[in-house]
Design brief:
366 residues, mainly alpha, two-stranded antiparallel ribbon, two-stranded antiparallel sheet, 14 helices, 44% helix
Length: 366
């Protein structure tokens, strides 16, 4: 029978890898338990094993105990927050049968939010770059209903509402969402950059393009069938270089004519090849934008398969191979950078937002 966690358990920070494991435990409890439905220790251990973590009951008991302590910060008796004013939720253990578990288990019980936390939630909504004004208004209305009428008035009075232009173009929302989901550097020697840093909250745009060279693969296959492997390899190489050159030309036209954010004297080819132009064009699968699956959004917004004839495989490879697709950012301060190694605390929520299992996402960004 499950036992309650010991009150003398050590803190998780003293055990290697505990931050990641504790995060998984909290995530599972939050999604699967409430005040009527419990999760058992076996449920939690099974969930951890899906992420390649083999743990024992005692270790998980300590994790849950630590989470409870974090959610219920120990204060001096005279400063203890009244139970009715506690915010968020708490984890409790019961041996009594619950709605879904005859042997009991861990429950997650709700508590009222504190006003300061509601104000923080509102500020987060106001600063979200990928929300339209109508979406933000609906979220602020929902937040206001979580507090008293007097607090709701104060909440709206103190909130700094970002003036956004209303948009009915869902593709615009989708492209901005793609940028805001981009991975951020985590290396301590880096500047902790992400593509979202180079897109303004309003009055800004994100461009994109796709280009392909057709016919080279078929002709290369014919060369190979004739035993001329050299010509086949050479043709594929030339096709790839032509696709890269076409991407350079398209990007140039976007900067100076179609979008027109680059002015002044045109740069010589040597300077263009050194990336001295204004803005950047990060391509999925490259160090600045390592997630290959982002091609899905680019192809969908451009309707590339119908308009261009370029297709994506299940593993997000472009067909034909001599193809390039990329995002275009106009910010003069933007620059190419390498995201580098992505830690688990960023990978897990990123994979969930993108709709992939963690193991699949690791391969997509490797």
């Amino acid at each position: 029978m499950d036992k309650q966690p010991s009150q003398n358990s050590p803190r998780p920070g003293k055990r290697p890898g505990q931050k990641y494991k504790s995060l998984l435990v909290l995530q599972y409890l939050h999604k699967n338990a409430d005040d009527e439905n419990a999760v058992t220790m076996n449920d939690i251990l099974s969930h951890l094993s899906k992420y390649g973590i083999e743990s024992d009951r005692r270790s998980v008991y300590r994790d849950i105990h630590d989470l409870v302590e974090l959610l219920n910060t120990e204060l001096q008796e005279e400063d203890r927050i009244p139970e009715r004013e506690r915010l968020g939720y708490e984890i409790v253990f019961t041996r009594k049968p619950t709605k879904n578990s005859p042997q009991g288990g861990y429950l997650v019980t709700q508590r009222p939010y504190e006003f300061d936390e509601l104000r923080l939630l509102t500020e987060c909504v106001n600063s979200a770059r990928f929300l339209s004004e109508s979406q933000a208004r609906n979220l602020r209305s929902t937040i206001s209903r979580l507090c008293s009428r007097e607090q709701a008035k104060l909440l709206n009075t103190e909130s700094l509402v970002v003036n956004r232009g209303k948009t009915i173009n869902k593709s615009v929302i989708a492209s901005i969402t793609t940028i805001n989901q981009a991975l951020r550097q985590q290396n301590t020697k880096s500047k902790y950059l992400a593509l979202a840093d180079f897109v303004a909250e309003k009055d800004d745009y994100v461009g994109m393009f796709a280009v392909s060279v057709f016919g080279a693969e078929e002709r290369a296959a014919a060369f190979k069938a004739e035993g001329d492997d050299y010509s086949a390899i050479l043709l594929k190489t030339v096709a790839n270089r032509v696709a890269e050159a076409a991407a350079e030309v398209i990007h140039l036209r976007m900067r100076r004519k179609i979008w027109g954010f680059e002015t002044g004297k045109p740069l010589p080819v040597a300077e263009l090849l050194r990336n001295r132009y204004t803005g950047i064009r990060p391509a999925p699968g490259y160090p600045t934008l390592p997630d290959h699956s982002l091609k899905r959004e680019i192809f969908g917004l451009l309707n590339a398969e119908k308009e261009l004839g370029t297709a994506l495989t299940d593993s997000f490879m472009m067909v034909p191979q001599a193809s390039v697709c990329a995002l275009v950012l106009a910010n003069a301060e933007s620059s190419y950078f390498a995201v580098g190694k992505v830690q688990e605390d960023q990978l897990l929520p990123y994979a969930e937002r993108r709709g992939f299992e963690p193991d699949v996402m690791r391969k997509l960004i490797s």
